[in-house]
Amino acid sequence: MKQILTALCALGLISLVAGVSAATTAPDDVKIEGLSINDSLTGVAGNVDEGRKIFANKKLGNCLACHVNSDLNDQLFHGEVGPSLDGAGSRWKEAQIRTILVNAKAVFTEQTVMPGFYSLDVGANVRKDLIGKTILEAQQIEDLVAYISTLK
Q: What DSSP line would sit under 36-100, residue for residue?
């Protein structure tokens, strides 16, 4: 019995070190109800400061490529393809922001150019090494939700 408990503890520790959480919802298991994803994808609250970094990071969300955000006036080259996100935290509930980030096409139709950041439904001509991968991880989505919710 002691050996079994030791093995289970080791597996749990390995999962934590690898960043894997039993509470994380896989992209294909995300449920959108009424244009909302009500529950956190990870069971962990988002970090506003991390969300701000992801928003500005050109190698992650790259949100500034398409959206104006006055909170990040210190950053160059705000895009105008998408709407300004000034006031987005007042216009959208957290569950709606989460849905837009996970799969914008579920909210804005197939015509939107905004990618689904936590969706495997990414369309045609995907690089082979990216098939089956999301643009952002579940916790990064939660961090963005927390940050965008502060933009009042």
A: B--S-SSSS---HHHHHHHHH-TTTT-GGGT---GGGTTSS----SSPP-TTHHHHS-HHHHHHH
